[in-house]
Amino acid sequence: MFLAYSYNQFRCEQGGWKPPMSPCNVKSLPQNRIAGLSRQAWPPHDTTKRSVSATIRKFVSDATQARRYFVSGMVQGVGFRFYAQRTAEKLRLSGYARNLRDGRVEVYALGTTEQLAAMRAALERGPRFSSVTQVNEEPAQADPEYKNDFIITYDE
Asked: What pLDDT shows up at residue 154?
């Protein structure tokens, strides 16, 4: 009565393409397939065991490190802390950014070596209206208070 082709299209004996449950095709299907398509899996369920592989994104050597950046130049009043926060969120870093009284911005970041290198490059560029003259980088101790997200704080 019908021949099955790809994309669930059937060719009816009267000619032309018909959808799978058109009247031409329904009369040739068994009753249990017409009444409830959920009674049996179609195609029949494959019971063979299959192996599953996964890729681990972080390796043991990619330990979280902490870095403190001091950014000098025209970096206050131009949205530098918000720029640092957006960049850190894109890079999936945690930590904080704050203005210092001497006109610099301090950025404390927790992440992998690659993430921190990308953060430093972004800090050297800065937002549109800033003018970065220098970025000093120091290693820091990991502070569990800032391990979840990147926030903007204020100088003490």
From this structure: 80
Known catalytic membership, residue 67: no
CA angle 69, 65, 56 (to 5 degrees): 135
Domain that holds residue 94: 65-152
pLDDT digits (tens, 9 = 90+) for 115-154: 999 999 999 999 998 999 999 999 999 988 888 899 998 8
* Placement of tokens 């800065």 in the chain: 126
90 in any annotated domain: yes
Q: Look up residue 83 and give its DSSP letter.
A: H
Set 8, 81, 104, 120: catalytic member: 81
Q: Say which of 25, 67, 99, 104 is annotated catalytic.
A: 99
Catalytic residue flag (residue 99): yes
Pairing of strands 150-152, 94-99: parallel
In 3D space, the residue among 89, 84, 121 whose CA is nearest the CA of residue 106 turns out to be 84
Give the pTM. Answer: 0.60
